[in-house]
Amino acid sequence: MHFLVVFKNVGSQLFPEEFSMERITMAHGAGGTVMSDLIKNHVLKHLGGSSAEVPLEALDDSAVIDNIVLKSDSHAVKPLFFPGGDIGRLAVAGTVNDIAMVGAEPVALTCGMILEEGLPIADLDRILESMEKTCKEAGVYVVTGDTKVVEKSGFGGCIINTSGIGKRNEALEKNILEVKKHRTFDSRWVLDSNLRKGDKLIVSGTMGDHGITILSAQEGYNFGSQIKSDVTPLNNVVMKLLNVGGIVAMKDPTRGGLSNSLNEWSMKSKVGIMVQESKVPLRGDVKAACEMLGLDPLEIGNEGKVLIGVVPQKAEEILSALRETKEGKDAQIIGEATSNFSEVVLETVVGGKRIMAPPIGDPVPRIC
Amino acid sequence: MHFLVVFKNVGSQLFPEEFSMERITMAHGAGGTVMSDLIKNHVLKHLGGSSAEVPLEALDDSAVIDNIVLKSDSHAVKPLFFPGGDIGRLAVAGTVNDIAMVGAEPVALTCGMILEEGLPIADLDRILESMEKTCKEAGVYVVTGDTKVVEKSGFGGCIINTSGIGKRNEALEKNILEVKKHRTFDSRWVLDSNLRKGDKLIVSGTMGDHGITILSAQEGYNFGSQIKSDVTPLNNVVMKLLNVGGIVAMKDPTRGGLSNSLNEWSMKSKVGIMVQESKVPLRGDVKAACEMLGLDPLEIGNEGKVLIGVVPQKAEEILSALRETKEGKDAQIIGEATSNFSEVVLETVVGGKRIMAPPIGDPVPRIC
Questions:
Q1: First vs last Cα of chain A: how many Å apart?
Q2: B-contacting residues in A 31-70 (Cβ below 8 Å)
Q3: Cβ-based neighbour number of residue B351 at 10 Å
Q4: pLDDT tens string A216-271
Q5: For the whole model, what pTM was predicted?
Q6: What residues contact residue A101 under an 8 Å CB cut-off, 6+ apart?
Q7: Bridge partner list, A310
Q8: Nearest to B300, CA basis, from B226, B224, B367
Q9: What average pLDDT score do residues B175-185 get?
Q10: Lowest-confidence pick of A9-18, A73-82, A223-232, B210-219
């Protein structure tokens, strides 16, 4: 029912009435069940098969092989510049964050640019300057790259792939030791599959800011106040939290938002998840925009937030440490893992309970 | 003079009469001096600055940091399928080869796909199947990936970024020991800057096959016989040659062809290079096609060939080992490094000498 509203308002291009099994649609890149089916039924059928410690098949934030964390992320956000950020900041933060999400310290990035004929070189300079600034914030460097140009075709001027490597460090070792004080834990990394009943779930701040910013920029909406993207590198915050310890899983809720991330965790960890809607931080203007457009803010992507699964004994300590940071000042404990059921269940503001099904996709196209 | 011919025949889109300093043109992605200026004046101004062993600034085939070889390559070849290969084979071989070119053994790949709305899923399956097959040939796996979709805009259906990591192995150590028997050598890798006077230059086979294949496919030319792309992973051949030893530099002459690679070597190694035109292997049909179109086959890109710089004492041995392989059966010693001059000089078939200036770009757009 919900999606019919989405179709009519903004998503007709993203969610065609029938999902063609014959051609690629925007939904195949929107981070929900349609994309996940494409990956499982097509990509994994041919690629993968490695003996990596965290292989392609894990579909986690990053892979791990030979103790090296490896991640690749293409960024096709449209428009290139938006309130709070741009494609350059997104490209650096996106990959740095995915490396940090498995508990690793980012070591180096690559930068593969697809430029569209006609892109003003001044725009390219702005993007590169923003990448430079974001790299400095994150404390990483671009060490290799590649540039390709394609004919003017209106895809938006620039697509950037950043890949990167990361490594274990003392903070991760300390974190794992702390987890082991409280329960058995046989993982060497912070993974989607590590959640166990009783673990507390924390989000670092307000949900949906990035996606609603991009939607506003794409459609020319004006929601009265300036909604800004949250795009930011989170590796320094993550290192601080790992030093506190007790974290078992982390995820940056990008495409498909919090709802997609929680459903992935529930599936991969084989636990139920209970979330209290009233605890999920939301900006008033984002909430209002979502109500107006018939969108669920929990299905809207973020680019500077982290979802954390932590052993219950350390939840308050992690929450306090997170709230001391600029990026985590609005952090909340939003729920916990449970063995009472196997789905993601939302306890709504009015006290009802509903299953939070995995989203078909992110209703905002090309947010990252 | 030569380039005026190129302009009129096929390159008007690639080489506009004036190189705009304000907007991106096709030449900015064509692997020659225009691209190199863009990278030096814009990309390096903002990115780089790392303390990596082989950093971004080296502009070598791959970077090296913490003993890990790291490479990123985006593939925007048009059309997606062509005689002898497809974008999937190209994406795997391209990155594997760049890792092998510094003397490393490829460990793992990433796959970041940009799909265009409307791409037939059957085409995606063909591409993935080809990646799978090429990965098997090279003995590597894709361990992580990312999928994005952009609206139908006519850029060609699919762009694939493959990044990858590689590591040192025994063959590289053995190769370096062998070099050190014959001259002082302080590099830990096989690099563009390692060439010294007297080193012999070998190419593994015929030049220009890939570029002319793509041009034929793009323009619907028919050159009487079937010219096929040479796209293939070279890492196994390279490992075999490193075990013979004596190699100081390697490069796969892709965009801008042999001419661009030799000029990069000359500049980075600060040596002159003498090449005998009569020794450069060329297919008859590629040569004829180039004559017809006013193109220089030495400026046309390859995807399955390696240019090797080797200490003179080992040149014949490397040549023999190379000729024993399927990929290197047409290998030739084509010239040597010299201190008599500082440019790349071609001794032509008729006995004249001319400076082989670095190409402005590859005259065939979107070959990789």
A1: 27
A2: 35, 38-39, 42-43, 45-50, 52, 55-56, 62-63, 65-66, 68, 70
A3: 8
A4: 999 988 876 789 999 999 999 999 999 999 999 999 999 999 999 999 999 999 99
A5: 0.94
A6: A61, A62, A190, A238, A250, A251, A252, A306
A7: A200, A247
A8: B367
A9: 98
A10: A9-18
